[in-house]
Here is the input.
Amino acid sequence: MSDPETIAVYDAQADDYERMMRVEAEEQTIWQAFVAAFPEGGAVLDLGCGPGNYARLFAQAGLKVTALDASAEMARRAAQIKGVTARHGVFDHVAEVDAYDGIWASFSLLHAPRADLPRHLSALRRALKPGGRFFIGMKTGTGGGRDDLGRFYEYYSNEELEALLRTAGFAPQRNWTGYGKGLAGQYSGWVVIDAHG
Here is the structure.
């Protein structure tokens, strides 16, 4: 993500977003399936980590956590968490090869322009070790646009997203779907897909 307006919203709304994500992380159980996929000490990337609510849980579970966020304020907050190595950067800054046992992209890649997503997914596949796990969360729907806070989003069907994952070299295994309210107060459907590298 490199959209300045979207990044500015996250910088300005950091306190509210952190409160919302703390509740989500406590109530959501999908992250437990992600953690269970790796031995203690496994290397994982939290892509678009926000204030680090999930990164904290991964570190507490004994994983070696790298976190990346395009919002300088979000990256600063994540960097304060014990066991988390956080850096400020955009999706195109992921250039590692065979570096991670797992990549957690929880509702971050939905900020990438649709034309850029295949490139980002290919880079993430290269960064993932053979046989690694990739969990991606996206909002479902069609088209793209800005929410009431000014953040840019792209929406995908489950089928479209799985096709993009396969093209990038991932093998989608299972998914979870739901419907909920985001920071802007708007409701939308969502999907989280567990894909193997």
